[in-house]
Amino acid sequence: MSHEWETIEFQGSNRLQCTKCGLMPAAPEAMALPCSDEIPQKPPMKKLTKPEFDMWLRQYPRELERDVFGAAEPPFVTWNDFTIAPQWPQSIVASTVAESGEYFVRSDL
Ligand SMILES: [Zn+2]
């Protein structure tokens, strides 16, 4: 099944997003991924304290890319593992809303 692309505004620039599966390809090769009509399931997340969260990030086995989604107020900060999924937001393994004091990580990793 092929994607149906539309142009959306994302983080201040125009990006392609599939209207069927929600994919936003970060790189041209991601556009070759198969399309699914199903909206991707939100991965299970668990809430951690700040010390637990810092420890979790330190012990994470792969390199993480920090991303600040500044279009949200307060900013939404995510840590991404692009070996799990080639595009945001499926790549998110940890997140926090700035100044919230609440920290979340994937509970299935
Ligand atoms: Zn698609």
Number of structurally distinct domains: 2
Rg, nearest Å: 15 Å
Distance between the termini: 29 Å
Low-confidence stretches: none
The percentage helix is under 10%
Largest beta-sheet details: 5 strands, antiparallel
**General shape:** globular
Mean pLDDT metric: 87
Strand content: 25-35%
Number of helices: 1
The side-by-side strand order for the widest beta sheet comes to 3-7-6-5-4
The small molecules bound here are:
zinc ion
Structural class: mainly beta
Number of strands: 7
Following the backbone from N to C, one meets helices and strands in this order, namely: EEEHEEEE
Characterise the protein shown here.
By secondary structure, the protein is mostly beta strands. The chain is built from one helix and seven strands; from the N terminus they run E-E-E-H-E-E-E-E. The protein folds into two domains: 39 residues, no CATH class; 69 residues. The chain has a five-stranded antiparallel β-sheet with strand order 3-7-6-5-4. A two-stranded antiparallel sheet has the order 1-2. A hairpin with a 5-residue loop joins strand 6 and strand 7. The longest helix is centred in the middle third of the chain and has 10 residues. The mean pLDDT is 87. The site of zinc ion (ZN) has 6 residues, from loops.
